[in-house]
Amino acid sequence: MHYPQNVLFLRFSSLGDVIFANYTAMRIKEKNPDFRLTWLVDSFYADIVRTQPWVDDVMVWDRKRTKNRGFLEILRQVRRRRFDILVDMHTSDRTSLFSFLCGIPVRYGCKKRFPFSHTHFSFDDLMDTTLPVSRCKRYLYAPRTVNDAAHVSVPAGSAAIGLAIGASHAVKRWPVRRWIEFCRFAETKGFYLLLLGSGADEVGMAEEIVSAAASRYIINKVGALSITDTIALINELDLVVSGDTGLMHVARALGKPVVGLFGPNFPGVEAEYMDRLGRKYVCHCSNSGCEKLECSRQCLEDISAAEVFEGVETLLPNI
């Protein structure tokens, strides 16, 4: 008799990495519909994971509150549940140790770090690996929401464009003055612009953009939505302009055309995706792609608002 396999899928964070991992979870369940897939995730991203139709159950680790004590407790819970398969989507020492101690007999990992921590380093028997994520048009399910602020209504014939204005590091952000210039270009075409993001820095940026651009076409959503409501809103947009940040990955996973702005980080698998479904702009600095996130030079300043707006206009007729 064939019994379903109980699978523990491990990806705690961050937003962009959770979105990428969602593609793998989808493909695993697609090939093995009888698997029961449980996702172990940080509490901040749990609501995203719960909405995915290929996820059967969610285990939550509140890392911010419980820290290492929570790591040991979640490890005890995993051992009690007697999973058959572990899929570790991290490449860290901590998850390698988790894999070694979890008591799960079959353990898939992305990269070998410690001897005996994982038993497999290829996912070929778990999923179809011939279709890379860059060629998959959509791999994120947008949750339903009753929050009116997570919906957008624009006049017929008008475009609704999301502007993800922030990033985790200042050097990865397009300067405020460039966003203002872009907003002024967009106003001449009657495009509606929704400012997206969260956090104190981004709230301040949004207020500056709204004040300087002084346009009735700008709708400020920064700091006003949960992450799941933001995903629901992006699902209703026509296009997203973003630096290298989590919301860019959300838009890609929802199949939205993306105009991506890159400086210290080169687009990785995003590059092929954007060649197919969007546009990418990389700063002109000779050290672009240096990954120096504390660099004092704001290299994204090199990317002009005019060229980004031209990219948007090129994409919109195809929507």
Largest sheet, described in full?
6 strands, parallel
**Strands of the largest sheet, in order across it?**
8-7-6-9-10-11
Q: Mean of residue pLDDT?
A: 91
Alpha-beta content class: alpha/beta
Q: Please work out how many helical segments DSSP would assign.
A: 10
Count of individual domains? 2
Number of strands: 11
What is the helix/strand order?
Answer: EHEHEHEHEEHEHEHEHEHEH
What is CATH's topology name of the largest domain?
A: Rossmann fold
Q: Return residue spans where pLDDT drops below 50 for at least 5 consecutive residues.
A: none
Q: In one word, what is the shape?
A: elongated
Cα distance spanning the termini? 49 Å
CATH class membership of the largest domain: Alpha Beta
Corresponding CATH superfamily of the largest domain: Glycogen Phosphorylase B
Gyration radius, to the nearest Å?
Answer: 21 Å
CATH architecture of the largest domain: 3-Layer(aba) Sandwich
Keywords: Glycosyltransferase, Transferase
Organism: Cloacibacillus porcorum
InterPro entries: Glyco_trans_9, LPS_LOS_Heptosyltrfase
GO molecular function: ADP-heptose-lipopolysaccharide heptosyltransferase activity
